């Protein structure tokens, strides 16, 4: 059995230069979170997939219930934001296929994408437009041109990542059972997204992925929801703390 233990630590979002929205998933009450798909409460934890006896794939999503403003009509650039979260993937069954998790920004708080390689971020019919996902994927999916089963990818309205990084290159193994830390920063004024990954809780000096992108051009709505998706392939995943 493979268990995804996900601990979301902190999200901070800054709109323009005068307003901000900040929240800490570790201190939020259940009423401040929205559970979608296979996500459910059990044994004082939020489980994001169902424990079934038959082989299956499933997807769960947890969102902060209040939308966050990413665009303002008086500004010609989108909001800047910063996030930090930690997670671990442990108790890997060597016969299991794999799975993944994703930090998501979405305009839709009512639906979840398909399981499998879609990671619950998007669906096979091409829906879920306007989504931004940073995936931490343990499955090499040829359909989506994954480079291996240990990578980080930036997904913009497509599960074929527009930017991808091989975690083997920095000595990080998603399925090691060790705590993995990630920082995601977007600079609205210069339209640049940086993703940092490390075992250390000290932010690396250089980003693991850095890409120039204007998230306001056909990707991001004025108001969006923040959260995390987890997908399981014949396994069980749960969030130990939010």
Automatic annotation (TrEMBL):
InterPro entries: ConA-like_dom_sf (IPR013320), Legume_lectin_dom (IPR001220), Leguminous_Lectin (IPR050258). Keywords: Kinase, Lectin, Receptor, Signal, Transferase. The keyword Transport does not apply. CDD domains: lectin_legume_LecRK_Arcelin_ConA. Coiled coil: none annotated. It comes from the Eukaryota. Pfam families: Lectin_legB. Residues 1-19 form the signal peptide. Residues 21-227 form the Legume lectin domain. GO terms for molecular function: carbohydrate binding; kinase activity. The keyword Ribosomal protein does not apply. Belongs to the leguminous lectin family. This is L-type lectin-domain containing receptor kinase VIII.1. It comes from Capsicum annuum (Capsicum pepper).
